[in-house]
Design goal:
Elements (H helix, E strand, L loop, with lengths): L4 H8 L5 H15 L3 H13 L19 H4 L3
Helix pairs in contact: 2-3
Length: about 70
C-alpha cells in the first residue's frame, strides 16, 4: 500500500500522464474481464517498455556467469 500512495496522489491531483492512465485502464479492464495474461502483458509493457533487444546480445546480466568461459573453449 505504501508504494501505491504516490500513484493515487498523482491520480487525485490529475497530474498522471495520459499514457500511464491508459495503461492502468487497460490493465484494470483486462482484470475485470478475467483476461489475466493480457493484463500481465500490459503491466510488463508499462513497467519495462516494449523495445526489442539488440540482435546478437548474449549477456543480458551485469555479471559474467562462472561457466561462461568454458562454452567457447575447444
Amino acid at each position: 500500500m505504501r508504494f501505491l500512495k504516490p500513484l493515487f496522489g498523482l491520480i487525485r491531483n490529475r497530474e498522471l500522464s495520459e499514457e500511464i492512465l491508459n495503461y492502468l485502464y487497460e490493465i484494470a479492464h483486462n482484470c475485470i474481464m478475467r483476461d489475466y495474461l493480457k493484463a500481465h502483458d500490459k503491466y510488463l509493457e508499462l513497467s519495462i517498455g516494449n523495445s526489442p533487444w539488440p540482435m546478437g546480445v548474449t549477456m543480458v546480466g551485469i555479471h559474467e556467469r562462472s561457466g561462461r568461459s568454458k562454452i567457447f573453449t575447444s
